[in-house]
Amino acid sequence: MPKLLVDAHLIYQNTMAVVDVCRKAGLEVFGVTKGVGGLPTVARAMLAGGVVGIADSRLANLERLRSSGIGAPLMLLRSPTMGEISRVAALVDILLCSSLPTINALSKAAIKQRREVQAILMVEMGDRREGIMPDELGDVLGTAEKLPGIRVRGLGTNLACLAGAMPTASGMTYLGDLANELGPGKAAPWTISAGNSSALGLIYEGKWPNLSLPAHLRIGESILLGWDVMTKKPLPGTSQAAFRLFAEVIEAARKPSLPGGPTGCNAFDEEIQPLDRGTHRRAILALGRQDLGSGKVMPIDPGIEVVGMTSDHTVLAIDEAKSAIRPGTQLEFRLDYGGLLAAMTSPYVGKIIKD
Asked: Lowest CB count within 10 Å: 27, 73, 193, 273, which one?
């Protein structure tokens, strides 16, 4: 079985580095744990590193965190389904939401729970995923503010997830202007949920605008993997070694690099154009897409190259490997975010937690 090593101390150090640069820009940070399936150890490392709360898109993950004893504010990143409303009202402190029917249902559930849930209204700013169109925001806000059990706390946005729309200083200024226009006079100051890890580039480049309202970012990938999600370049003061995947070689042999005979689509309906390496050394891992989904693995040994992956096997070119590779050899890999997400939620990948 492949195994994933989770180094909580490195996550703590990464959190401190990211929180520090955000604080200097006037921003707080919510640590996002969806990439690790709401693992309490990771949430605690983030909290120790300075995040003000924990955010996740899965209600089950937030329930897991709370039942583990974590008392920090919990934020639900994705609008709940109607079947989840009662559980949300009982647990969640802050909800990112763009659906008025959902807010209305949550109001009724919150009254029954004798709780008040804070709602941040998400604004559509170009990524074409969730969000209220700006010209409809006033009407939605006017209705939401009249609902008992709900307190609208501000505006938020999400970028660089679906369409890849990048955060810009002008866009953040626009969001701040919207919040200033709609928020004055409220009983408590509004806040701006200004984006996710993709917004960090503006901060590191010194382009983050001055916002007159309190603001925070929701940071997961950049803390976990220690990189700028737009460029994949390491962030200053962070480690890229907080997660390491280990997989075992089950075959090593010399084989031709090109297929024999006519070819068509592979098992995943892909047409592959393999590189002609001649006859060369290959290794096969007990690791595949059933373990990692569409995620990628990057060998630690620069002399090893991933040739391809099927449901249960990963094929490597090992001609330039630094050490001998044979069946039983354990090889070490880094993962991209998709690989981490899949590995953490796969029952076929063991987890080793290093505090």
From this structure: 273
What are 138-179's pLDDT values in tens digits? 999 999 999 999 999 999 999 999 998 999 999 999 999 999
Q: Rounded to whole angstroms, how far apart are CA atoms 337 and 198?
A: 13
Residue from 266, 232, 251 nearest 335 by CA = 232
Q: Which domains does the chain show, CATH number per domain?
A: 7-225 (3.20.20.10), 243-354 (no CATH)
User: Closest Cα partner for 306 from 288, 291, 324?
Assistant: 288
| Alpha-carbon dihedral angle through residues 169, 173, 179, 181, given to the nearest 10 degrees | -160
Cα Rg of the chain, angstroms: 23
Q: Is the distance from CB of 291 to CB of 346 less than 8 angstroms? A: yes
Rounded Cα distance, 227 and 9, in Å: 17
Task: Give CA–CA dist 36/11, Å, rounded.
Answer: 12
133 burial (CB, 10 Å; 0-12 / 13-18 / 19+) is exposed
Give the predicted TM-score (pTM) of the model.
Answer: 0.94
**DSSP codes of every residue in 81-143:** PGGGHHHHHHH-SEEEE--HHHHHHHHHHHHHHT--EEEEEEB--SS-SS-B-GGGHHHHHHH
Question: What's the number of CA atoms in the CB half-sphere (13 Å) around residue 213?
Answer: 28
The pair of structure tokens assigned to 162 is: 């679906």
Q: Rounded to whole angstroms, how far apart are CA atoms 39 and 37?
A: 6
Cβ-based burial of 185 (10 A; exposed 0-12, middle 13-18, buried ≥19): exposed
| Partners of residue 32 on adjacent β-strands | 55
pLDDT in tens, 96-118: 999 999 999 999 999 999 999 99
